[in-house]
Amino acid sequence: MKKAERDLRQAIIDKCRFMNASGLNQGTSGNISARFEGRMLITPSATPYDALTPEMIASMPFDAEYGSWDGPLKPSTEWRFHFDILKNRSDAGAVVHAHPTYCTALAIARKPIPPVHYMMAAFGGTDVRCAPYATFGTEELSNFALEALEDRCACLLANHGSIVVGDNIEKAMWLAVELETIARQYYNTLLIGGPVLLSDDQIAETARAFGSYGVQDDHKKVRKRTPKTKAKSKKPSRKA
Asked: What span, in angstroms and rounded, lies between the C-alpha atoms of 6 and 104?
């Protein structure tokens, strides 16, 4: 196994453990997948995260028979929407599915998340949609998820949980945490009369700002840009 693949498999395990330790997920209900060289790597079914090793992560090739897999353990029962998202979206490098308390509470009420906070722009639009209900692991659920994720990187699943898509595993997990935070904030505003929503223009303004100083994919680029910006008004910084 290549070092890069082993490292990615370990990163999947580490993020699964983080999900449970942070309260984002409980037990073995969530699952994480990532793209690697024409394949999907995904957590196995019904296996405690603390017991996982890199070799236990299931591998599912995109160009083989649909649903085929390699590994000592079968893939998560939710492999289908993970697989369909990664195969059909070139911008997707990782998928995080969890049952976080506030996202799930809103999903049970079939409530999408409206533009209650400027960070909604991080999810690709002015809202996070709630997909209709379908039985877990089914083609129907995958189709509903793909539709709810159109032009978005997150959605709720009715009476189920949440899905977040990122171009890498770090970004996907960051967004999953951000989504649950906003869901909690939205939930609490519903208890005190409801939120005041931001306009489409205000969300779009935030999205434009992200292009220069917001959420970045490459942290090294952020560090390199910061001294150049400061150099216009302050003394030049030393070279790294």
From this structure: 32
Distance between CA atoms of 130 and 109, rounded to whole angstroms? 10
Q: From the candidates 5, 65, 78, 150, which is the catalytic residue?
A: 78
Burial (CB count within 10 angstroms: exposed 0-12, middle 13-18, buried 19+), residue 157: buried
Per domain, the residue ranges of the chain are 3-190, 200-230
Residue with tokens 């083609």: 139
56: which DSSP letter?
G
Which residues make beta-bridge pairs with 40? 35, 60
Domain range 3-190, CATH architecture = 3-Layer(aba) Sandwich (3.40)
List pLDDT tens digits, range 152-165: 999 999 999 999 99
Cβ neighbourhood burial of 197 (10 Å; 0-12, 13-18, 19+): middle
Active site residue 5: no
Q: CA dist 84 to 79, 109, 146, 165, Å?
A: 9, 26, 8, 12
pLDDT digits (tens, 9 = 90+) for 45-72: 989 999 999 999 999 999 999 999 999 9
DSSP letters for 210-238: HHHHS--S-HHHHHHHHHHHHTTTSPPPP
Residue 94 CA to residue 17 CA, distance in Å, equals: 16
